[in-house]
Write a structure and sequence with these properties.
Largest sheet: none
Strand content: under 5%
Number of helices: 3
Oligomer: single chain
């Protein structure tokens, strides 16, 4: 546990020193600045990845929806072309509806 913490602090110190060389006029103390910038960078990358995946999924769903609309339109036209009559028998229970249909 302590070894990991030590290695982490070394890595953060190294990135801090590198950042200090690049940004010598930074007003924020380097360890805080380095940690915040790394965290912000990870968050930005994650947000960009999520945004891209969401846009891809939206596009996929839109294309699937178009396929469904097209299929339903085709079946609707076929149903209209056939023009079959349909009827319904309505009545109370035990009124003889099934007997009427079966004879």
């Amino acid at each position: 546990m302590r070894r990991r913490a030590r290695e982490k602090s070394r890595l953060s110190w190294h990135s801090c020193v590198t950042a200090q060389r690049a940004w010598s006029d930074c007003a924020v103390p380097c360890p805080v600045w380095a940690a915040v910038s790394v965290r912000e960078d990870r968050v930005k990358r994650k947000l960009e990845m999520d945004r891209r995946l969401i846009h891809e999924r939206i596009g996929q769903l839109k294309s699937e929806l178009e396929d469904v609309k097209r299929h339903r339109e085709v079946t609707r036209k076929q149903r209209d072309r056939k023009y079959t009559l349909s009827a319904a028998i309505v009545g109370y229970t035990n009124a003889g509806k099934s007997t009427l249909l079966n004879t």
